[in-house]
Amino acid sequence: MELKIGLLPGDGIGPEVIREAVKVVDVIANKFSHDIIWKEGLVGAAAIDAIGDPYPNETHEICLDSDAILFGAVGDPKYDNDPTAKVRPEEGLLRMRKKLGLYANIRPTYTFDSLLEKSPIKKSIIKGTDLVFVRELTGGIYFGKKGRNKTNDYAFDTCEYNIDEITRLAKIGFELALKRSKKLCCIDKANVLETSRLWRQTVQSLEKDYPNVEVSYEFVDAVAMRLIHSPSYYDVMITSNLFGDILTDEASVISGSMGLMPSASVGSETSIYEPIHGSFPQAKDKNIANPLATILSASMMFERSFNLQNESNLIRDLVNESIANNIVTQDLSGDSKSYTTAEVGDWIVNKIKSL
Ligand code: IPM
Ligand code: MN
């Protein structure tokens, strides 16, 4: 099969972790006789530095022309403490999501038996956790009306949703629930927010189309608590943009390291696969970043965008094996020897070659 993959390494540790995922994808392609056509583009601070725009047109064209995109991370500390910056790397990410119509962000959280000790939460609580967030990604308060008044002493952001935006997101959640344990939780703040009441009403009206899915409705504040004291209670969870942003960071703690969790942003045009850890500038160029979340994102890409289950499973199995054998970067190695970003990638590559 010919696979056209866009490559957007971005900032911070993005290029380093992407490099390892590319190595893995190339060797998988070789093993299963696929032809990969890579096309690389600039995004984030790297794109601002080069051409003054965090999501240049040329990058957008590359995305439109790709079957799937592997994305590293965006963000640079030089912009974080400057509220007057005219342009920021994150703007590139948000524009990319909007322009490509990437309305659903799928973020799984699961545990690895050999890492149960690594989580700050008790082993007995997190054991068996296997949940997926489906976060709305192109609406809500991120994209609603926002601004300041003339005297610059008042600011506002607005949360807005229409039925179509909620329906298409909820359908992804229902479909995913059907493939898993048939449990769906809609997370909102319907006791206070009008948009949440529209979410609840819309999801309720879809229930009849999915009679086999058991739907529950919970308030976001209660979920924030229950996610920590009984994470295995949940399976598929659907929620709005901002709630999903916050809860998925919270959930990532359960797996033991932020460096482990992949994600997919899916839409009508194409899909983007990226680690959820962000640009982690403190680790940039040190060859210490954990590449596994990006390698697992590549596994998700084979499954979701190319329907190549064997390729996807093989990558996932080898990530599990590398963790079980302690071939891990310093965020996971504890008292034992730690491996570099490149060594972890090489170990997986060599395993695939040897099969
Ligand atoms: C994420 C990130 C982004 C978001 C930032 C970088 C704009 O935190 O992908 O979760 O808030 O969506
Ligand atoms: Mn986030």
Protein described:
With 355 residues, the protein is of the alpha/beta class. It folds into 2 domains: 1-110 and 257-355, Isopropylmalate Dehydrogenase (3-Layer(aba) Sandwich); 120-255, Isopropylmalate Dehydrogenase. Helices cover 43% and strands 19% of the residues. It is built from 14 helices and 12 strands. It has helices at 14-31, 45-51, 57-64, 77-80, 89-99, 123-126, 163-179, 194-206, 220-229, 241-252, 292-304, 309-324, 330-333, 341-354, and strands at 2-10, 35-40, 68-73, 104-110, 130-136, 146-148, 155-157, 183-188, 214-219, 236-239, 262-266, 271-275. The strands form 2 sheets. Strands 2-1-3-12-11-4-5-10-8-9 form a 10-stranded mixed sheet, with helices on both faces. Strands 6-7 form a two-stranded antiparallel sheet. A hairpin with a 4-residue loop joins strand 11 and strand 12. Helix 1 (14-31) packs parallel to helix 14 (341-354) and helix 7 crosses helix 8 (194-206). The longest helix is centred in the first third of the chain and has 18 residues, at 14-31. It is globular, with a radius of gyration of 20 Å. The model has no long low-confidence stretch (mean pLDDT 96). Manganese (II) ion binds next to helix 10.
